[in-house]
């Protein structure tokens, strides 16, 4: 379970013709977690203010209902099935980068910071990377100039002998480990990490502003990812419990970052985007997981709750305040939009799935484009306009379900939230998301409405498949030697376990 706040900060200084932009990306927060999206306790005044001053996207999607593939998609502008962030070990299995993963982001992929570098940007990632741990996958090898954070989720504590605690890096150097040097108190939920990440962001922005340096800041924090945490001043302050405390601290931090941009006089040169990498993890709810509002199921699934995300664009003086957009958007669009803002062309030697959202953001246009919902190696569903066709349905296996693991707690819809993988290729299940945002009432196969919508979507699927060149799957193999290589002691004592096919717990 991965939680993170992603501040996509792409910048150029105020004196420059070009612009600075920055963005927020929050991990594993759900569509329904913000006051601006109807969360009943209304505890996110800063994010709500950000929405009031900027543009709210109501139909914005991540590229996969799990963290690693979504982040790879965000930074490459490409679906995980193209950039390699998927597994072929099991049909429609989501996969991520556990500690012992062998794969990672391939060198052949061009990441947003690599491209922005060409336009003189300084790029920083704060928080969780999640695109591989081996040296060749280090963020500083893929376009980032600075890093403060960890390669993985803050799972643990581990014994740091058999299994090391997750390391924390400053640039190339490992500066400590979670639970040891960077404390997370699982009993009280107290950790100071969000405060550390906030300070890193403020310092980085100040430094770039002082040297009139365009910057891209990717603020990838993970307080809302189980095990959820907050610093002392936020503990016990939310009606929603510890998860709400974490959300409040993130909200407070976003407010401080936006305020900092304003005080430095660079808010009009900075494009900020706030979103999440997957839907709230309902398996952890209500104590450690958030809300997906009216949508079906959560993280890990290709129902709306797994992939529709809260999203806010903020750019004072450019984006009209109080805007609301129904554009079908994707995290991959942040790649294309950022390049466009920086005056760069997207790479022409490969398929890019993101689109440039500037006409939407600045002129209120609507661009017709489909959304592809993948789970692992399988195209599960497609949205076009208000229609969504499911080609496959699956929540999770009976085996997992019998152990109490439920991706759709309290939300079973007969024939839809199936515990066996059900193929509907020849007769897709169709929903009208305007009349039925919760995906509860499939349209009648015999209706004219069904036939017209499915015909249109089938055409889009054919086109998509015809041009699809799947990447080499990066998430197939785990090897404990990869994990042990981080360990500062015990190397000689623990013989590496031979490589084995990764068995990816669908929990994360
Ligand atoms: C957080 O920081 C405060 C102030 O420095 C300190 O007292 C507290 O022990 C820290 N908490 C954790 C969990 O590290």
The counted number of beta strands is: 22
**Which ions, cofactors or small ligands are bound in this entry?**
2-acetamido-2-deoxy-beta-D-glucopyranose
- CATH level-1 class of the largest domain: Alpha Beta
Proportion in β-strands = 15-25%
**Name of the CATH superfamily of the largest domain:** Alkaline Phosphatase, subunit A
Identify the overall geometry: globular
Q: Which structural class do the helices and strands define?
A: alpha+beta
Model regions low in confidence, pLDDT < 50 over at least 5 residues: 1-6, 8-20, 487-508
User: Mind describing the biggest β-sheet?
Assistant: 12 strands, mixed
Radius of gyration: 21 Å
Report the CATH topology name of the largest domain: Alkaline Phosphatase, subunit A
Assembly of the depicted chains = single chain
What does the average pLDDT come to?
Answer: 90
Can you tell me the CATH architecture of the largest domain? 3-Layer(aba) Sandwich
Q: Estimate percent helicity.
A: 10-25%
N-to-C CA distance:
4 Å
Instruction: Give the count of helical stretches.
Output: 12
Number of domains: 2
Question: Explain this structure to me?
Answer:
This protein has 508 residues and is of the alpha+beta class. The chain folds into two domains: 3-369, Alkaline Phosphatase, subunit A, CATH 3.40.720; 378-466, Arylsulfatase, C-terminal domain (2-Layer Sandwich). It is built from twelve helices and 22 strands. It has helices spanning 45-53, 67-76, 80-83, 112-117, 193-210, 242-263, 304-307, 332-341, 358-363, 398-402, 448-467, 480-484; strands at residues 5-11, 24-26, 55-61, 122-127, 146-149, 167-170, 173-177, 184-185, 190-191, 215-220, 270-276, 308-314, 323-325, 329-330, 371-375, 378-384, 387-390, 392-393, 422-423, 429-432, 477-478, 500-501. The strands form five sheets. Strands 1, 2, 3, 4, 5, 6, 7, 10, 11, 12, 13 and 14 form a twelve-stranded mixed sheet that branches. Strands 15-16-17-20 form a four-stranded antiparallel sheet, with helices on one face. Strands 8-9 form a two-stranded antiparallel ribbon. A hairpin with a 2-residue loop joins strand 15 (371-375) and strand 16. The chain is globular, with a radius of gyration of 21 Å. The model is unreliable at 1-6, 8-20 and 487-508 (pLDDT under 50). The structure holds 2-acetamido-2-deoxy-beta-D-glucopyranose. 2-acetamido-2-deoxy-beta-D-glucopyranose is lined by residues 183, 185, 190-192.
């Amino acid at each position: 379970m991965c939680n993170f706040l992603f501040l996509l900060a792409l910048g150029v200084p105020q004196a420059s013709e070009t612009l600075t932009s920055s963005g927020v990306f929050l991990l594993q927060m759900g569509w329904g977690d913000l006051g601006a999206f109807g969360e009943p306790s209304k505890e996110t005044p800063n994010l709500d203010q950000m929405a009031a001053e900027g543009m709210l996207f109501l139909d914005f999607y991540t590229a996969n209902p799990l963290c690693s593939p979504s982040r790879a998609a965000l930074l490459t502008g490409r679906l995980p099935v193209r950039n390699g962030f998927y597994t072929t070990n099991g049909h429609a299995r989501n996969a991520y980068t556990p500690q012992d993963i062998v794969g990672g982001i391939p060198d052949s992929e061009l990441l947003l910071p690599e491209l922005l570098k060409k336009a003189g940007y300084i790029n920083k990632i704060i928080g969780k990377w999640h695109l591989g741990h081996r040296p060749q996958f280090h963020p500083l090898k893929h376009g980032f100039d600075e890093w403060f954070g960890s390669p993985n989720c803050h799972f643990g504590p581990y014994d740091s002998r058999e299994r090391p605690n997750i390391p924390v890096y400053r640039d190339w150097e490992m500066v400590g480990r979670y639970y040891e040097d960077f404390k997370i108190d699982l009993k009280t939920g107290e950790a100071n990490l969000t405060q550390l990440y906030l300070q890193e962001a403020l310092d980085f922005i100040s430094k770039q502003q002082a040297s009139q340096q365009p910057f891209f800041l990717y603020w990838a924090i993970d307080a809302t990812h189980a095990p959820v945490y907050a610093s002392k001043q936020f503990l016990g302050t939310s009606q929603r419990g510890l998860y709400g405390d974490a959300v409040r601290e993130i909200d407070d931090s976003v407010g401080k970052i936006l305020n900092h941009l304003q005080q430095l006089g660079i808010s009009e040169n900075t494009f900020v985007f706030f979103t999440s990498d997957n839907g709230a993890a309902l398996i952890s709810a209500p104590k450690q997981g958030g809300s997906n509002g009216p949508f079906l199921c959560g993280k890990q699934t290709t129902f709306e709750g797994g992939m529709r995300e809260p999203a806010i664009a903020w750019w004072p003086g450019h984006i009209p305040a109080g805007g609301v957009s129904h554009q079908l958007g994707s995290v991959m669009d942040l790649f294309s939009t950022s390049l466009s803002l920086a005056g760069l062309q997207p790479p022409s030697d490969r398929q890019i799935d993101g689109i440039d959202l500037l006409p939407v953001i600045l002129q209120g246009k609507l661009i017709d484009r489909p959304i592809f919902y993948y789970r692992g190696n399988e195209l599960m569903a497609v949205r076009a306009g208000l229609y969504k066709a499911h080609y496959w349905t699956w929540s999770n296996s009976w085996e997992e379900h019998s152990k109490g693991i439920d991706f759709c707690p309290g939300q079973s819809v007969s024939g839809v939230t199936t515990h066996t993988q059900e193929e509907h290729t020849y007769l897709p299940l169709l929903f009208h998301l305007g009349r039925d945002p919760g995906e509860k009432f499939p349209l009648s196969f015999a209706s004219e409405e069904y036939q017209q919508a499915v015909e249109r979507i089938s055409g889009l699927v054919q086109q998509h498949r015809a041009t699809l060149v799947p990447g080499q799957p990066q998430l197939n193999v785990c090897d404990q030697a990869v994990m042990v290589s981080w360990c500062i002691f015990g190397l000689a004592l623990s013989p590496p376990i031979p490589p084995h096919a990764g068995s990816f717990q669908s929990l994360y």
